[in-house]
Amino acid sequence: MTFKDDLYYIEKVLSGSVNDFSVLIDRHKDRVFNLAFRISGNREEAEEIAQDTFLKAYHSLGSFRKNAAFSTWLYRIAYNAAISCIRSRKKLLISIEELSSDPGSFPDIPENGEESYEEYRKSLLNFALGKLNEEDRGIISLYYYEDMSTEEIAFATGMSQSNVKVRLFRTRQKLLEIIGIAEQNQLVCHEKI
Fold it and tell me: Is the pTM of the predicted complex or chain greater than 0.85?
């Protein structure tokens, strides 16, 4: 079976073959879900966001201009849907200053072994990502997990490319600060034991 590019299926859907939209869903569902999950931090919300994304994409398919990749256009819809979802639940974010007051929520330092240390680093990164606001999590996810360029992220988020670069820089700094505080608190907790 030969696979066609996204534009082929978009044209088929726009010509009335609505069943061909399922190919686009199958092709992009995992990445849309992953982006939604990284931003929302909640599996059920991510599933809802992904469904909403594909529903909005289907209804807006006629407005897709083809000046960007379909996936980038789809990520813009997913990003905006995830941000809207987060804002609607009015989640309170923990500031960096508040992090040091709750050392029990940090990942445990591994006893030994390179593999367990790698798992610790991954859980520490996920912990730090969870402390970012939804927009910063989204930008980091698009850049590092989806391998999007700053130009593509600018299109997906509606920000300027220079703003994306600044946000990436500042978000990396925040992540390093959060990880540093988390590691320092873990060391203090282990010394008290």
Answer: no
